[in-house]
Amino acid sequence: MAQVFSRSHVLALKLGALAVFGAIFVALLAWRILIAPHPAVGAPVEQVVPFSHRHHVGDDGFDCRYCHTSVETSAFAGIPPTHVCMTCHSQLFTDQPVLAPVVQSLRSGEPIHWKRIHDLPDFVYFNHGIHVAKGVGCEECHGRVDEMPLTWREAPLTMQWCLDCHRNPAMHLRPLEHVFDMGWKPGEDQRALGERLVAQYHIHTSTLTDCSTCHR
Length: 216
Known about the structure:
This protein is mostly helical. It has 10 helices and no strands. Helix 4 crosses helix 5 (100-108). The longest helix has 29 residues, at 7-35. The N and C termini lie far apart (58 Å). The model has no long low-confidence stretch (mean pLDDT 88).
C-alpha cells in the first residue's frame, strides 16, 4: 500500500499538533495567572466579616496604619490580627451577630481567613514600603477605600498599568505627610510638584522600567 503522507507532511502534522497543544497550555496558564486568582475590578469581595472601610476610614477617621501596621517598612501592608479589631469591639457592638467570627477568632486563637483582593503573581516583586517612602499615596493603587462599604480592586494591576506610573512617576507623587490622606489634591500643578518630589526623594527614573525592578 502506497504511503499516504510523505515524511515532511507527517513532520508538519506533528509540529502542528504540538503547536496547538502548546497554545492551549499557554492560554490556560495565562488564565490561571492573570485572571483566575483575582477578583474583577470594581466587584466587591464578600468576606467572612463584611468589613467597611467607608465606615472605619471615612466615618470614624481611622488611619491606614492603625490596621496595616507594616505598610511603611515591609513589602506587605499586613492584615490586622483579631486583637486589633477587638481593641474597639471588646466594648462596641460585641454582641452583634455580624461580629461573631471576630469574637470567636479571639477566643480560639484561630485567625480570620480574609480573602485577598490585591494579589500579584509570584514572579512580580512589589514592596509597599518603598512606594510609601517615595510619596505614592495608598489611593493611587487602592482607590478611595474610604468610600468603599465593601472593598474591591480598583486597579487592574497589569504590567502595563504599573509601567504607566513608572514611566511618568511625577504625576503620581505627593508629599510624604499626605501619603495616607484619601482624596488629597495638590495645591499647585501636579507636574511641577511631582518633578520636585522626584528630585527630593532621589527617584532614579532611568531604572524604574528595568525588568529587574519588578522581576527578581
